[in-house]
Amino acid sequence: MKAAYPATPLLDVDELNTWFFTKAGVVKSVRNVSFTVGRGEVVGVVGESGSGKSVTGLSIMGLIDPPGRIVSGSVRLNGQELTGLTERQFRKYRGARIAMIFQNPMMTLNPVQTIGDQISEAVTEHESLSPREVHARCIDALKTVGIPSPEERLTAYPHEFSGGMRQRIVIATALVTRPELIIADEPTTALDVTIQAQIIHQTRKLIDETGTGLVWISHDLATLSELADRIVVMYAGTVVETGTTAEIIGNPKHPYTIRLLDSVPSRNEPGRPLRQIPGIMPSLISLGEGCPFASRCDRRIPRCDQPIPAVTPTSTRRVYCINIPQEDEVTA
Amino acid sequence: MTVVADAPIIVAHGVSKTFTLEAGFMASICQRLGNSERRSVRAVDDVSFEVRPGETVGIVGESGCGKSTLARILAGISLPTDGNVTFRDQSTKDWLSDARKALRVQMIFQDPQSSINPRMKVSDVVGEAPVVHGLIPRARRDAYVRECLEKVGLDPDFIHRYPHQFSGGQRQRVGIARALAVNPELLICDESVAALDVSVQAQIINLLMEIRAEFGLTMLFISHDLGVIRHMCDRVIVMYLGRIVEVATAKDLFESPRHPYTRMLLDGMPRVTTHRREFMTIKGEIPSPINPPPGCHFNPRCKFRTDECLSQRPPLEQAGENRKAACIHWRQISG
Questions:
Q1: B19 pairs with which residues across the strands?
Q2: Does residue B222 fall inside a structural domain?
Q3: Confidence at residue A200, expressed as pLDDT on a 0 to 100 scale
Q4: Nearest to A264 among B226, B227, B276 (CB)
Q5: Residue B276 — very low, low, confident or very high, per pLDDT cuts 50/70/90?
Q6: What is the phi-psi region of residue B256: left when phi exceeds 0, alpha when psi lies from -120 to 50, beta otherwise?
Q7: Do A197 and B274 lie within an 8 Å CB cutoff?
């Protein structure tokens, strides 16, 4: 797999396992997850509730608290290992070199602090700059995310902004330290359609201009297909398939990806029953060794109960299925 | 159904709803001194339409467009400030004194977590209303609830469970069973599938379409998700800041929008594609409903704007066969 990326990738997540040790049992939220992100690349991580996509994001950020723990595997930023760092060591990375954007901007922003104070705090925490330089940085960041008259807006409080503007401010705060990598967890899910389109458009532009790497975590295949260069599909804590956006959307191979795409309303004839996936996601406590989708899969064979090796149909692609439908079957 | 197909089941006649904002401490002092006016939000602004039996009508719009307020008025949960709603030619104002009439309209909410009492067992959640209103004898309640659960694809043995023992999709099924239990004629779904995962959403949409066919239900489907609206609805009403801006069949609306706002919505709609999207620039944000722009509310974001748009409210006029639009320039837009 590594051979496809000759240089060290910006982010390399390798065989990551993050488990939560609860009274009810061990919840294996993330199991053997591997993917890479290059500079200036947008990687979409898609999955439903409980797929482990958010825990993967938090694991990269070093934000897993007990009873959770990264059990094994590695997360490397520019080749440097991040797992096993102490909290003190990690603080040098978090915010400065890796930034995170969450779904709800009102929970991210401090309601009793002006946005100017909040953005400049992100800068002064990691760099020693003169107040004038800090001010200029803040203005710059607000301009890049399209906030009108940034000078005046620096003294405003979060409640004085609309939801879309608040999310832009959160993105500006993430950008102000010029991080190498941004992890965004459902950043536009709470926004209206027209505002979401604006933010996605601006994000794509920013990534192309700055060369920052972006991991965009979402349940929404449509937004990801418009924004991401590559897509990682997760189900019940594991990666079931990765590839370029064109490969995943245009030619899905894993039965889960195929069925997930089939159940999107706009890919069905209006008024007809949607091609739904029967059943529900299995509990993350009682998972066996085999494919987690097997219980809902119509292509299940006995071999599915054993560990599933990756198949690599192209150099950019990995599929964790031992009974991949043939081309003609997919279109049938 | 025995009704004449042409007689509408529910009609909104010039419905408006104004909310007066709670004045803060200083503002209330100013008011006593006669210095300031009370601020108000016109959440629904002179809205008229009708729904025919068996039809599924979608109401689409972004935050603050008044779609949920309108849904609550149609369900008889809140009363309009102006105008009135008639259900089968009777004003829904009577529903306050005769709750049994109100049963004919049922609502399914977005978040089953907050719309179902967590301390009630499913047998009570679903069975309470039919028993209280005398639709079934109390002795038959559990058997009846079992039937209702089966209709929505839940195990009938779940009747002694509490809401927290269900997954999100199952809980939404309980909400649907509760609505069906009183044999409604009109079902109002307010963002009923918005909080669900894609695969669960598909299951619930299929269920709604099945029960619609099985019980001959009329449906009002409120959503911000255009893909779901396109899939479910016969006709679509588009709202912007409290007003209807366009009404058309789903097919016409998605193929040839007449109002610039509808067009903007369709352009912004994310689509599953294999190539990177060319984004057109979307201008501005939704203005505050407390102080909406004069004339056509959409004018600050509209590229077809002329001086006329600033001075007068555009009427909702005929804009082709079986469709209406509230834009004086609709001919230009559709051309």
A1: B41
A2: yes
A3: 87
A4: B227
A5: low
A6: beta
A7: no
Helix (H, G, I), strand (E, B) or coil at A53: helix
For residue B94, give the CATH number of its domain. Answer: 3.40.50.300
Of all residues in chain B, the one with the smallest CA distance to A220 is: B198
What was the pLDDT predicted at B1? Answer: 40
Q: What is the dihedral of CA A254, A256, A262, A266, to 10 degrees?
A: -110
DSSP B222-275: EES-HHHHHHH-SEEEEEETTEEEEEEEHHHHHHS--SHHHHHHHHHS----SS
Question: Measured between CB atoms, which of A195, A226, A275 is closest to B285?
Answer: A195
Q: Do B226 and A193 touch (CB under 8 A)?
A: yes
- CB of A285 within 8 Å of any CB in chain B? no
**Number of folded domains that form chain B:** 1
**What distance in Å separates the CA atoms of residue B78 and residue B219, rounded to the nearest whole number?**
19
Q: Which residues of B touch A201 (CB under 8 A)?
A: 279, 281
Q: Which amino acid is at A23?
A: K
* CA distance to A13, A241, B25, per residue, from A309 (Å): 18, 12, 66
Residue A278 CA from chain centroid, whole number: 26
Confidence of residue B199 (pLDDT cuts 50, 70, 90): confident
CA B215 vs. chain centroid, Å, equals 20
Give how far Cα A311 sits from Cα of A287, A308, B201, B274, Å: 22, 9, 30, 22
Query: For chain A, what is the radius of gyration of the CA atoms?
Result: 21
Contact B226 A260 (CB under 8 A): no
- Helix runs in chain B, H state only: 25-32, 67-74, 99-102, 112-115, 122-132, 141-151, 168-180, 198-215, 226-232, 250-255, 260-268, 307-311, 330-334
Which pair of structure tokens corresponds to residue B190?
């307010």
- Residues forming a β-bridge with A44: A216, A231
Q: In chain A, pLDDT over 70 holds for what percent of residues?
A: 96
Residue B64 within any structural domain of the chain: yes
Whether the Cβ atoms of residue A140 and residue A209 lie closer than 8 Å to each other: no
pLDDT digits (tens, 9 = 90+) for B139-181: 999 999 999 999 898 889 899 999 988 888 889 999 999 999 9
Instruction: Please list, in sequence order, all residues whose beta carbon lies within 8 angstroms of the beta carbon of residue A152, skipping any fewer than 6 positions away.
Output: none
Task: Tell me if A201 and B281 make a contact (CB, 8 A cut-off).
Answer: yes
Determine, for residues B201 and A263 on separate chains, whether the beta-carbon distance falls below 8 Å. Answer: yes
Q: Which of residues 277-316 of B touch A (CB under 8 A)?
A: 277, 279, 281-282, 285-286
A-chain CB neighbours of B200 within 8 Å are 48, 280
Domains of chain A, each with CATH number or no CATH: 2-97+179-331 (3.40.50.300), 108-177 (no CATH)
Does the CB of B226 have a partner CB in chain A at under 8 Å?
yes
Which domain does B196 fall in, by range?
10-104+184-256
Chain A residue numbers with beta carbons less than 8 Å from the beta carbon of B270 are 193, 196-197, 200, 220, 222-223, 225-226
Choose among A164, A265, A266: nearest Cβ to B285. A164
**Does the residue B117 lie in any domain?**
no
Scanning the structure block, which residue is given the tokens 């085999």? A290
Provide the H-helix boundaries in A211-301.
221-227, 245-250, 255-262
